[in-house]
Write a structure and sequence with these properties.
It contains 26 helices and 24 strands. The chain has 684 residues and is an alpha+beta fold. Bound molecules: 2-(butylsulfanyl)adenosine.
């Protein structure tokens, strides 16, 4: 072929591929099969390989991912990325409407229109197009500054690398949601379980985890999607309303949600919210609410913003989705402390984007309180997290053959003795397998030890742990660290290649200096979680000092002149364990394996800075951007301390939406109250 013809063919292929991307993602009307699409792409790839000088950055072949990055650079958003205020019921929605009507001076709201859009549970991004070319993809971060994730964003086929069409502004920033469809979420989690990695808790975590990858090739392997829902910086603004904006960006090639509706009144909005509720479970992605926006830009501008939210926008959040199914059987699973937890198997039911067959019943007390029986028709619910729960039995529909759920009298895994735990009234609340050598307990302890929030050992997930324990290669924490001495045995495991084994040995070696905090957390001592472990390790500095401490001392030491937050339950549990035979043995073994039992440097200085040193914070209410855990971690990273109750010693209260008694108390005591935004300014 002559060079000109090659260029012509390449152009044609690119146009065709872009057209089919558009048909698939923007119009949701694919015209060709996956195979046909792949054939076009592979022809283009081949031609580009033969003529590398003809490759352009916006060619559809350039979505495969580039060189891994060292880290993400921070970018400042041209316009802040705000969050949205939430409501949970009709009254609050009406109250919002009233406020708007009033502040716009509308008689009765006749001049108002709303756009209602599904609120997709994903990760917000800002995409910047200059002269139609995608030049930047950024996370929200703290709203002012986020991470540059352009490389990762480029791998998402729903995001056009280039926009085209009449009236395209020179600078166009679109905001939207990157999300993982439910089917892809299941595929990724199945894959992770097979590889022995921890499964993601929900599609949003999976999306966030994927976008954080420094190697964009990993992102290209997961099918993330994108839907646009708002604007950032624009060099000119040829639209008068949100609806118009959505229509225009769709013309230019950006996907918007086809379920979006224009509503002429708040009653219509409500109708839409109600109608949508029953349908949202059928969608191929998770939706947790409906976003309602004032349509006309002129009115949006008049309404303006609070320090945290636009006043012209509100999110109505649905209650967790429920489904109805039949309870078929209950298995009892053995936890790391020997506790037996009932797991229900039900007739499969489609709920919030996935097929559900199992749910937790928590414990025997719950089963009795809810009066759930085998054969019952039950209501199940998926809360924010992905593990479904049995909410209640529909007793009116109970058949004659329904039977009581009986707790096991022997451990279902080792056949060992079982002991009941009772509450103050003598009612049984839980059962435990008391065999110290129960293989299931060992397995669960090891899974916990290697888990993400503890030692975080790469490649040592549930599957591999099961293989290692069943082969008799690991029967204690210490054994993990001598695996490299038995390479042949490890290699003999199924699906364990040389590379995988070497990676595992290297990962194990690498965690030896994670430090005392993570080791303590990994031991899985009752009540002693990762926060307590970190505080304790930072206070004592080493296991030897901790071993010298009395129970009283652990319970009463202070940090910066204030109580540490370690209560008697934690202190007793930890002290008892450390001074038991089993505890001493574990510590000796880890020490011998060369695992550091001193506070890690990372934990001791801990921090991004020490701006908040000596300051005590309490957090209350729902914050716009951060969860409770996240903001507390942020406080700690900057050297401050988060406690749970307001007192004279509290320096600041960070208050979010629906802050109640703590806010009152802080005001009464004259404690300074901060919004999330004001707090962020302190640490910026
Ligand atoms: S508008 C200033 N529209 O929900 C308004 N957000 O809880 C900016 N979200 O940060 C957001 N679907 O990540 C808007 N149709 C939608 C949305 C949506 C999902 C996310 C978005 C936002 C978060 C707030």
């Amino acid at each position: 072929m002559a060079k000109r013809d090659i260029q012509g063919r390449i152009d044609k292929l690119r146009d065709e591929i872009r057209l089919h991307d558009r048909k698939y993602y923007v119009e949701a009307r694919p015209e060709i099969s996956d195979q046909q699409y792949d054939a076009l792409l592979s022809e283009l790839k081949q031609l580009e390989q033969q003529h590398p000088e003809l490759v352009t950055p916006d060619s559809p072949t350039q979505r495969v991912g580039g060189q891994p990055l060292e880290g993400f650079t921070t970018v400042t958003h041209a316009l802040r990325m705000l969050s949205i205020d939430n409501t949970y019921n009709r009254e609050d929605l009406e109250a919002w409407h009233q406020r708007i009507v009033k502040s716009l001076g509308e008689e009765n709201g006749d001049g108002l229109e709303f756009v209602a859009e599904p609120k997709i549970d994903g990760v917000a991004v800002s995409l910047r197009y200059e002269d139609g070319h995608l030049v930047l993809g950024a996370t929200r971060g703290d709203g002012r500054r986020g991470d540059d994730i352009t490389q990762n964003v480029r791998t998402i086929r729903a995001i056009p690398l280039r926009l085209r069409g009449a009236g395209l502004p020179a600078v166009l920033e679109v905001r939207g949601e990157i999300f993982m469809p439910s089917a892809e979420f299941q595929r990724i989690n199945n894959l992770r379980r097979e590889q022995g990695a921890e499964a993601f808790a929900n599609p949003r975590n999976a999306t966030a985890g994927t976008l954080k990858q420094l190697d964009s090739r990993n992102v290209a392997e997961r099918r993330l999607e994108f839907i646009a829902h708002g604007r950032g910086e624009l060099s000119d603004e040829p639209f008068a309303s949100h609806q118009e904006f959505l229509r225009r960006i769709e013309d230019w090639g950006l996907p918007t949600n086809p379920l979006t509706r224009l509503c002429a009144s708040i009653d219509e909005v409500w109708e839409m919210i109600e109608q949508f509720e029953s349908r949202r479970g059928e969608l191929p992605y998770g939706v947790d609410g409906m976003v309602v926006k004032v349509n006309r830009y002129e009115q949006q501008e008049l309404l303006g913003y609070t320090s945290r939210f636009p006043r012209w926008c509100i999110a109505y959040k649905y209650a967790a989705e429920q489904g109805i199914t039949k309870l078929l059987k209950v298995d009892w699973q053995v936890g790391k402390t020997g506790k037996l937890t009932p797991r229900a198997t039900m007739e499969p039911v489609f709920l919030a984007g996935t097929t559900v067959q199992h749910a937790t019943l928590h414990n025997l007390g719950e089963i009795r309180r809810k009066d759930v029986r085998l054969g019952d028709t039950v209501v199940i619910e998926k809360a924010g997290e992905i593990i479904p729960q049995v909410i209640r039995a529909i007793t009116e529909q109970r058949g004659k053959d329904a039977r009581e759920i009986e707790p096991p009298t022997k451990c279902p895994e080792c056949g060992g003795d079982v002991e009941a735990e009772q509450d103050d009234t003598g009612k049984e609340t839980a059962r435990y397998c008391i065999n110290p050598e129960c293989p299931a307990q060992l397995r669960e302890r090891l899974i916990h030890f290697a888990g993400r929030d503890q030692m975080d050992i790469d490649g040592l997930g549930e599957k591999v742990i099961i293989q290692l324990t069943e082969a008799g290669l690991v029967s204690s924490f210490g054994d993990i660290f001598s695996l490299h001495n038995k390479p042949e045995d490890v290699l003999a495991l199924e699906r364990m290649g040389k590379k995988k084994a070497e990676n595992l040995f290297a990962a194990v070696e690498a965690v030896k200096d994670r430090g005392l905090g993570r080791v303590l957390a990994g031991l899985g001592v009752h009540h002693v979680g990762s926060t307590a472990s970190r505080i304790i390790s930072e206070h004592y500095g080493s296991i030897d000092k901790l071993l010298q401490a009395s129970q009283d001392d652990i319970e009463s030491f202070e940090v910066d002149g204030k109580k540490s937050g370690i209560g008697p339950e934690i202190a007793k549990s930890l002290y008892t364990f450390l001074h038991s035979d089993a505890g001493r043995h574990v510590i000796d073994e880890l020490r011998e394996a060369g695992v550091s039992l001193e506070v890690s440097q990372e934990s001791a200085t801990g921090s991004a800075g020490a701006e908040l040193a000596g300051k005590t914070f309490v957090v209350t209410g729902t914050l716009p951007q951060f969860s409770r855990d996240e903001i507390q971690a942020l406080i700690a990273r900057h050297g401050g301390k988060a406690t749970s109750s307001v007192s004279k010693k509290t320096d600041f209260l960070i208050a979010g939406e629906s802050a109640g008694s703590k806010l009152e108390k802080a005001n009464a005591l004259g404690v300074k109250v901060l919004s999330e935004e004001e707090f962020l300014k302190m640490v910026e």
